[in-house]
Amino acid sequence: MGIDLPLIWAIIIFFGVMMYVVMDGFDLGIGILYPLVPDRQDRDVMMNTVAPVWDGNETWLVLGGAGLLAAFPLAYSIMLSALYLPLIFMLLGLIFRGVAFEFRFKALDRERHIWDKAFIGGSITAAFFQGVSLGSYLRGIPVEHHTYAGGPMDWFAPFPLMTGVGVVIAYALLGSTWLILKTDGELQRKMIRLTRPLTWLLLAAIAVVSIWTPLADSHIAQRWFSLPNLFWFAPVPLLLGLTVVGLLRSLSGSPHAAPFLCTLAVIFLGYTGFAISIWPNIIPPRISIWAASSPPQSQGFALVGTLLIVPMILGYTAWSYYVFRGKVKHDDHYH
Questions:
Q1: pTM for the whole structure
Q2: Using CA atoms, how far apart are residues 105 and 92, in angstroms rounded to an integer?
Q3: What is the DSSP letter of 293?
Q4: What are the backbone dihedrals phi and psi of residue 4, each rounded to the nearest 5 degrees, phi first?
Q5: What is the pLDDT of residue 212?
Q6: In angstroms, how far is the first alpha carbon of the chain from the final one?
């Protein structure tokens, strides 16, 4: 029995995208929460919690995109054709967010509000259009003769817009629980108060998307409620409910890492439900990972480099978070 290279690559891309959602999600969430924290010193602390690591987090987005091009070029061409505009808007948001990171600390006091607005707008835009892309992808991409058969504005529909809002809420929750982990004092208490309503909002968004998805796509409904997939999917809602209860309970007393870890578990369970919904397709509803894969020689060649580089990325990521561990104080500065 040979090695199933498309399956290996699907796992790598799944892992890379999940790492991006987790690691860039909380710093986008900080930008989303900025309007709720008007105090300048608190905003400085919020940004300082991610300033040393935010740019490295986006490595995983590059890995996911490059892996998709190398291993599944057909899927890459179709997805970029279908999602060209939302992905462009997402990248513009990331650019504004990145520029604001650097310029805000060097700006004069009378100019700082400009970069605060750029940070807020870039974070919300990037998060929203990531969700729009996810919703457009999940509801299916029309394909004829291995090319995209839809229009440039197909993504502008109620379901993708709803998933866009859901991702903004999810990233805001990641941001608030990250700040509970990394700050103390009044700012931490404010984040604890914000986390409770954000948790309920995210749970409501997940419920709406979970009900809407099988109603909108008969292929997904069949996949969810047929055997043996039902056995794989059934534990997800139960685990999600238990994790949300754990998250709300962890906010009592003097919370530290537990709310953030519970939020990561919620995001992972939602991501797992998404993977179950489309498996084994890489372009819903009909193109599988095997139909869209590049030649085995290409996948094997790229896999060698990937298996070398991924441990290096994991290593320097872990090291950077270890070096910058601990609480961030008001007198800490980013240079």
A1: 0.92
A2: 21
A3: P
A4: -85, 85
A5: 86
A6: 54
Give the single-character DSSP code of 332: -
8-state DSSP, 2: -
Distance CA 130, CA 249 (A): 30
Take residue 305 and report the two structure tokens written for it.
């480099």
Residue 300 has pLDDT above 80, yes or no: yes
Convert the pLDDT of each residue in 24-35 to its tens digit. Answer: 888 899 999 999
Residue type present at position 240: L
Side-chain half-sphere exposure of 46, counting CA atoms within 13 A: 32
**DSSP 8-class letter at 326:** S
Cβ neighbourhood burial of 14 (10 Å; 0-12, 13-18, 19+): middle
Q: How many angstroms separate the CA atoms of 105 and 110, rounded? A: 12
Burial of 299 (0-12, 13-18, 19+ CB in 10 A): buried
Q: Are 67 and 16 in contact (CB under 8 A)?
A: yes
Q: Rounded CA gap, 133 and 137, in Å?
A: 6
pLDDT of residue 334 exceeding 70: no
CA distance linking residue 317 with residue 53, whole number of Å: 8
The three state secondary structure string of 123-147 is: HHHHHHHHHHHHHHHHCCCCEECCE
What separation in angstroms does the CA of 118 have from each of 24, 126, 206?
17, 12, 29
Task: Give the closest residue to 160 by CA, choosing from 138, 188, 182.
Answer: 138
Contact 27, 82 (CB under 8 A): no
Is the preceding omega at residue 255 within 30 degrees of 0, hence cis?
no
Contact assessment for residue 35 and residue 120, using Cβ atoms and an 8 Å cutoff: yes
The DSSP line for 82-111 is: HTHHHHHHHHHHHHHHHHHHHHHHHS-TTT
Under 8 Å between Cβ of 155 and 82 = yes
Position 288, amino acid: S
Q: Which backbone phi and psi does 48 adopt, to 5 degrees?
A: -65, -25
Each residue's pLDDT tens digit, 315-332: 988 898 888 888 887 665
